[in-house]
Design brief:
Length: 448
């Protein structure tokens, strides 16, 4: 199948899974927001920036790294792709355990620094999932490298389904104690990761027979070294946005608290409503980015890479443009439908946050695809420049704009959009720079 067609087929499979999981996530977030209220959802959202940063350190870049390694070398001889999976599992098990323990031990310190000491229990209950997600990322990267997006798609749906039922049940059981209710909802994440990992283990055991080992075998340390070499730049790039969210969790509440009493609620609307809705179309575009990596990495000719690149941008722009239009023009209707129990003031604020955040749908979606293309081409460190400048700009703007009482929380929205725009613009130059596109890109064999 041509690379352009492969991208479309893989993106449709993974995109469907992401869309369904996001719909389930939205279905979950609506009653959860109604159950917890503005303050409770603010506490709930405060946990995730720290969690996301730890996930990135614990191996969020592994799926893309494994996908690139397996797709670019599976036809050229060397070790079996299953050997790469086993090596990554051993490596990420150790890393995941370390970060899970750190999150549990430092839970009180982190919660106190964020200005909400009561959420320490949520961090403790969430800590095992860092280890679980590290292992899940190995299996997803393995199948993505083989252009099999079904396990990733199905496991994401499983995660959201379990989180929905367990989370709402526990959140309701512990009311009216909001702090315990939030902790119950957070604990559902760990349960959902356990179930998703079990599914991937079963699926990989059934599918293993279809992938026959190749003749050469490379040691664990060699394979781990190659995984780390590809993972590090992807992790650095991937951690930038969660790190900026992590910084937001400290800056926004503390700065807004200097002139308003509802800082936590405003942060909850910004991250729990605006970001949640915007991430739906962005996540669908993420499927295009993931499908682009094996398509570009396995291309042997420059013309094939150009075609795959152009197809990826076309699909990204079409999906993100539709998402932008829906969020910008339908912000009020979306908030009223999805979050009916917000107060009139909260609903109006959330609608404006969503309208201003809608520009980020296009900028962030394009940025994802650009990063995937650069990673697949072997230019793994180039995306760091773009996102690095974007984060610096965002942090500077946040400090300036958030202190303006008239802008209030909208200062954070403006800063975030500026971040994604500047990063995508810088990356665009690298993606479309002049190259010797007639060159044949050979697939190198692995050597022991």
């Amino acid at each position: 199948m041509a690379n352009g067609g492969r991208i479309l087929k893989s993106a449709l499979t993974l995109g469907t899974g992401i869309l369904v999981s996001k719909i389930l996530g939205a279905i979950y977030r609506i009653p959860l927001t109604n159950v917890l209220g503005g303050y409770g959802i603010g506490l709930y959202q405060t946990v995730f920036p720290v969690y996301a940063v730890l996930l990135d350190f614990a191996g969020a870049g592994v799926p893309s790294a494994l996908s690139k390694i397996i797709s670019s070398k599976k036809e050229g001889g060397g070790v079996t792709s299953y050997e790469y999976l086993l090596s990554s599992v051993k490596l990420l098990s150790l890393v995941g355990i370390v970060f899970s323990v750190l999150l549990g031990v430092l839970s009180r310190v982190i919660a106190s620094l964020q200005g909400n000491s009561s959420i320490y229990l949520s961090y403790i209950l969430l800590s095992p999932s860092v280890f679980l997600v590290a292992l899940i990322s190995c299996y997803r990267g393995y199948f993505q490298g083989l252009s099999d997006m079904k396990p990733t798609a199905i496991s994401q749906i499983i995660e959201q389904s379990v989180k929905l039922f367990v989370g709402l049940t526990l959140a309701t059981v512990f009311l009216p104690d909001v702090e315990k209710s939030v902790a119950g909802a957070v604990s559902a994440i760990t349960v959902s990761e356990v179930v998703a990992l079990v599914f991937l283990l079963i699926y990989s055991r059934k599918k293993r027979k279809e992938f026959s080992p190749l003749v050469f075998h490379v040691g664990f340390f060699y394979r781990s070294g190659e995984i780390i070499k590809n993972t590090v730049p992807i992790t650095i790039t991937g951690i930038a946005i969660p790190l900026s969210k992590f910084i937001d969790s400290f800056i926004i509440v503390n700065v807004l608290s200097s002139y308003t009493d509802n800082a936590t609620a405003l942060y909850g609307l910004f991250s729990g409503v605006g970001t949640t809705v915007v991430n739906l179309p962005v996540s669908v575009c993420y499927a295009v980015a993931i499908a682009t990596i094996p398509a570009v990495a396995s291309a042997r000719y420059g013309a094939e890479r150009i075609k795959a690149r152009n197809k990826a941008f076309l699909y990204t722009l079409l999906i993100s443009a539709a998402g932008f239009s829906a969020c910008f023009f339908g912000s009020s209707l979306i908030v009223k439908i999805l979050f009916p129990r917000l107060s009139v003031t909260e609903s109006a604020t959330a609608s404006m946050i969503l309208k201003y955040s809608s520009f980020g749908v296009i900028f962030l979606s394009v940025l994802q695809t650009e990063n995937a293309i650069l990673f697949a081409r072997g230019e793994t460190y180039r995306p760091i420049l773009g996102i690095g400048i974007g984060i610096i700009l965002k942090t500077a703007l946040s400090f300036v704009l958030l202190f303006d009482a008239d802008l209030n929380i909208y200062g954070a929205v403006i800063a975030e959009s500026a971040c994604y725009f500047s990063a995508s613009l810088i990356n665009l130059i690298g993606v479309f720079k002049r190259r010797n596109e007639s060159k044949i890109y050979s697939v190198r064999k692995l050597t022991a």
